[in-house]
Amino acid sequence: MSYILNIETATKNCSVALAKEGKTIFYKEIAEEGYSHAERLHVFIEQIIKDAGITLNDLSAIAVSQGPGSYTGLRIGVSAAKGLCYALDIPLIAVDTLQALASQVTISDGLIVPMIDARRMEVYSAIFTPDFEKKREVLAEIITENSFDDLEETLYFVGDSTEKCKLVLTKGNCVFLEDIKYPSAQEMSALSYAKFKINDTVDVAYFEPYYLKDFLVTAPKKQ
């Protein structure tokens, strides 16, 4: 029996899910304007393990959202995941944050475009098929009225950037699913289990979140 604890802290949503054989059986999450991950995360983990009637020693692996997303949020989640993996001597699994966000969408055709807010009109985004296969890799990009002009399919946008992006992405093939704002550990369950089954894990000592830090560096203004 494989129990995997999934941790998602890449955005404002502090989310933890316990999965058995790839199915979420318990979860706790809260999305707040002020980041409360440091205070909430370990409490959520303890409550879920208690509610499930198991112990941490019953876990087969820990899965963590790898980013992109909030620098502070990712650091908190990865630090907690690494600490548990070290203490329990179990593997660490890294899950693509944007894929987990896209996995909340159910469509039969078209493409899914998950986006995580960066600043101003900047977002982290990727493109997925209805089967959640990645069609375009993660980019840090500035959204303009010409973004995604090369795609004729219906585009379903999700994430915490939809409100600002829908003001400029006004083409007829753009659909904004505004109810889906944040990635959740619930959607990580199937993704992490699929990786667990093929031993797709990361090095606990050397793993670092996917920050896309180069996108956030700006050149100094000329004097």
UniProtKB/TrEMBL annotation:
<dbReference type="InterPro" id="IPR000905">
    <property type="entry name" value="Gcp-like_dom"/>
</dbReference>
<protein>
    <submittedName>
        <fullName>tRNA threonylcarbamoyladenosine biosynthesis protein TsaB</fullName>
    </submittedName>
</protein>
<dbReference type="GO" id="GO:0002949">
    <property type="term" value="P:tRNA threonylcarbamoyladenosine modification"/>
</dbReference>
<dbReference type="InterPro" id="IPR022496">
    <property type="entry name" value="T6A_TsaB"/>
</dbReference>
<dbReference type="InterPro" id="IPR043129">
    <property type="entry name" value="ATPase_NBD"/>
</dbReference>
<dbReference type="Pfam" id="PF00814">
    <property type="entry name" value="TsaD"/>
</dbReference>
<dbReference type="GO" id="GO:0005829">
    <property type="term" value="C:cytosol"/>
</dbReference>
<feature type="domain" description="Gcp-like">
    <location>
        <begin position="36"/>
        <end position="199"/>
    </location>
</feature>
